[in-house]
UniProtKB/TrEMBL annotation:
Binding site for heme: C380
A single BP term in Gene Ontology: secondary metabolite biosynthetic process
Cofactor(s) demanded: heme
Domain of life: Eukaryota
Similarity field: Belongs to the cytochrome P450 family.
Organism lineage: Eukaryota, Viridiplantae, Streptophyta, Embryophyta, Tracheophyta
GO cellular component, one term: membrane
Localisation: Membrane
Cross-referenced Gene3D superfamilies: Cytochrome P450 (1.10.630.10)
Family annotation (Pfam families): p450
Protein name (database record): Cytochrome P450
Main location, first listed in the record: membrane
SUPFAM superfamilies registered for this protein in UniProt: Cytochrome P450
Organism: Coptis chinensis
Keywords from the UniProt entry: Heme, Iron, Membrane, Metal-binding, Monooxygenase, Oxidoreductase, Transmembrane, Transmembrane helix
């Protein structure tokens, strides 16, 4: 579909073939750029972060650092014990509430878990749990994420009508972003300064896989200061923090909501876990590989409620042809991921929660029908981390607890307005109680 948003030409693609043509074949490099939105200039450090940088040497270097230094499979594997610690922590807290027959609010607990995982990876410390109180730093971060998502979902008229910016029509929006940028920079600078002080007292090995990622970035900065300015380092840090917390938290909340509304799926998943995990211990990441049905639950959740229902916009760096039509240079590309992943012509009964449709499939991609982490050169580099955290957490919750809804009514599946991310309109509450065959090992966690 070809549209005009003000002075900006836009194409919206809503079919697998169109996505493939734009992002994975002859036009993949052409559409690897980002539109020059004001948010990319102000919050993206003048278009230098991995999210907002145009395709080129700077972006390639940032992508390489993320894939090789920060989120490589070997580093993620080395950090599996840390993720397991955080899952054990949420199990213990839920067990305490479940044994007291209390309703449990899961949204905040999922945020706590994902925040601790990414903070321990980045900075080597945690903030939520039995031994640490609800830190003010965590509340600061949660508010920063919330405000970033709000502004990301807001349409800035000046991005589509330049005259609006010239006459100062977007001054209020700009001031909001500048205020948010100052708070985000302060949060990140505090972490950087803390690690610079640690660096003067301790020796860190950049090649050591359990070295905090901030220390890896500081090592790169010392080696190549012209390439790794403070703004570049802060941009990498924020991309990892934001991508590693909010989307994983939302996916787990949607998944548990679906399981509560479909108890037969929950029971089938419990039976699979009981079959493959020996009694007397909590499952771990090595067990998850043997649980195809649990993996299918995650994939079906990502299909029905993709973390980014509209992919971050792309922009054509030169004139090209899509679907037999000429697309001018500078055209913005929007991929309607939600439409593709819920299209009845592509999926049998797409509104139904049917994990079985993914049994026997590997990974989180099904051609160009299922692309929850994007596709092509700008695909999310955090897919490996997100899938590990989401799948392990859900498997552990299914393994340890029997779950039921609060009251007789189905869980409300209403979502907030469609935007950069897809969140439940109402935080999820549920009832849980430890399963009989899990009581012994939960007490030992």
């Amino acid at each position: 579909m070809y549209l005009k948003f003000g002075s900006r030409p836009v194409i919206v693609v809503s079919s697998p073939s169109a996505v493939e043509e734009c992002l994975s074949s002859k036009n993949d490099i052409i559409f690897a750029n980002r539109p020059r939105f004001l948010i990319g200039k102000l919050l993206g450090h003048d278009y230098t972060t991995m999210v907002w940088a145009d395709y080129g040497p700077n972006w390639k270097n940032l992508r390489r650092i993320s894939a090789v230094e920060l989120l490589s499979p070997s580093r993620l594997q080395m950090l599996s014990a840390m993720r397991f610690d955080e899952v054990k922590s949420i199990i213990k807290r839920l067990s305490d509430q479940g044994c007291k027959h209390q309703n449990v609010e899961l949204s905040s607990k999922f945020f706590a878990l994902t925040y601790n995982v990414i903070m321990r990876m980045m900075a080597g410390k945690r903030y939520y749990g039995e031994q640490v109180g609800d830190s003010e730093e965590v509340k600061r971060f949660q508010e920063l994420v919330r405000e970033t998502l709000r502004l990301s979902d807001s349409s800035n008229v000046g991005d589509f009508l330049p005259i609006w910016r010239w006459i100062g029509g977007d001054k209020g929006f700009q001031n909001e972003m500048l205020g948010l940028k100052a708070k985000r920079d302060k949060f990140l600078e505090d972490l950087l300064e803390e690690h610079r002080r640690l660096r003067s007292d301790l020796k860190f090995d950049r090649e050591e896989k359990q070295t905090p990622l901030i220390q890896v970035l500081l090592s790169l900065q010392e080696a190549e200061p012209e390439h790794y300015t403070d703004d570049v380092v802060k941009g990498i840090m924020w991309d990892l923090f934001a991508a590693g917390t909010d989307t994983s938290k939302s996916t787990m909340e949607w998944a548990m909501s679906l399981l509560l509304n479909n108890p037969h799926v929950l029971k089938k998943a419990q039976e699979e876990i009981d079959l493959h995990v020996e009694p007397g211990r909590l499952l771990d990441e090595s067990d998850v590989e043997k649980l195809p049905y649990v993996h299918s639950i995650v994939m079906e959740t990502l299909r029905m409620y993709p973390p980014g229902p509209l992919m971050i916009p792309h922009e054509a760096s030169e004139e090209c042809i899509v679907g037999g039509y000429n697309v001018p240079r500078g055209t913005m590309l929007l991929v309607n991921l939600w439409e593709i992943e819920n299209d009845p012509n592509l999926w049998n009964e797409p509104t139904k929660f049917v994990p079985e449709r993914f049994l026997g499939l590997e990974g989180t991609r099904v051609g160009f029908k299922l692309m929850p982490f994007g596709v092509g050169r700008r695909k999310c580099p955090g897919e490996g981390l997100a899938t590990r955290v989401i799948t392990l957490t859900l498997a552990a919750l299914i393994h340890c607890f029997d779950w039921e809804r609060v009251g007789e009514q189905m869980v409300d599946m209403s979502q907030q307005k469609l935007g950069a991310t897809m969140h439940k309109a109402l935080p999820l509450e549920a009832k849980c109680r430890p399963r009989k065959n899990a009581l012994n090992f939960i007490d030992k966690l």
